[in-house]
Structures are given as structure tokens and as C-alpha cells.
Amino acid sequence: MESKTKHPGMNPINDTMLTRESWKIFQIMSEFVEGFERLARITPSVSIFGSARMGPDHPHYQLTIDIARTLSDAGFSVVSGGGPGIMEAANKGAYEGKSPSIGLNIQLPHEQIGNPFQDISLSFRHFFSRKVMFVKYAAAYVVLPGGFGTLDELAEILTLVQTRKTRKIPIILVHEPFWAGLIDWFKTTLVEEKTISPEDLDLITILDKPTDILEAIFSHYEYRGFEPSAEEAEILLEL
User: Fold this and answer.
1) Domain annotation for the chain: domains and CATH numbers
2) What pTM was estimated for this model as a whole?
3) Does residue 85 contact residue 110 with C-beta atoms inside 8 Å?
């Protein structure tokens, strides 16, 4: 009997599965193309993150509405995840304001229901393509209390700015008591262990009032304008 040569580390895969994997590339491409085409002219914009579990009766929900409305009336489009909780509050505040409200919805096994406050609504199957859209056109990140998804988005933008894979933008955390323990851990553990530099902490600002958030964003762009420089545009092409 003829023996078969085994290749360590190679798992068998049938032709049907291989075909599905290959064609998945085109679905991913379509998400990027639609996102680029629909968001490229929606500038300047601010991406807002926070928990899906904080409903209209939570004080952070109303605070988010106030923040988003303030930003929208000042000329910023507001981008959120398109779902419930803080995402809904961000879209609602922007929807009531003067600038577009944008939702980047994600299809989940336990289906996310899009909120009704979206002037522009995009739907994604893949978190990674959705995350690029949050970053690529954002003039600032505003991060309210949230869970793993919120922390994921925060870590993403910090990593991209730290490694200069995207331009430096304001990264604003809202509600100091919620974030205090994490920031202390950054200082006492990450800095002490030299896994980040002390100046990396300067990437983060903690503010609570909508007007202070708006002022911090305007202050960052006071001498340069909101559009990426030629050098930054090249960096964003490689995001």
C-alpha cells in the first residue's frame, strides 16, 4: 500500500470550504469600498464609543446625547456603532443637531438592532473593517464608560497613534471615576514595567463636560485645520 506523506501543521480542508474562504475576500472588499465611498466626504467627524447596556434611564445616556448634540451643532458629524445604549444616545444627540448622525452597525450572532437615529447607516459583518471606518475619518475619539468592545476601540486608537499608523487626534475619556483605576494601572504597571513610555499617557485626556470636550477638540486643531496634512494622508492610506 502506498503511504501518504504527512505535512506537519497542515489541516485538511475541503474544496467547498476553500472556495468560500476565497470568495469571502470580495465581501470584505465590498465593506471597505462602501465605507470609503460613503464616509470620505463626511468630515470633520467624531467617533463616540460606550456601553450598549446603558439605556435611557442611565445618566451617561443623557450625557452622551448632550455631548453629541454639542458636537453636531458645532459642525462635527458623529459616528457611533449604530446599536443601543451609548451608541443610540450618540446618534440621537447628533440626529437632533445640525450635522449628520452616522451608525456603523455590526451583524452579531445575537443580532444587534440598529437605533432609529441614523442619517447614514452602514452594516458590517467584520469587526476589523468596521474598526477601520471608525478611525480613518475621525478628527477625535470620545470614549464613555463601556465594556470589552469599548476597551477594544480605545486600545485600537491608542496603538495606532502610538505607532504612528494614524495621525494624532484627541482621545477623550468621559467620566473620570470610571477610568481612574485603568489610568492608575497604566501609570503604576505599564509605565513601571516599561511596556509603554510615560509620554504615551499624554495621548489621553479625561473630561466630563460637553463644552470642555468641544473646546479640547478645537484647541487641538486651532493652528492646523481638520483636514489631514499631505504626510498624514499618506499614513492614512496605509491604515
Assistant:
1) 33-237 (3.40.50.450)
2) 0.88
3) no
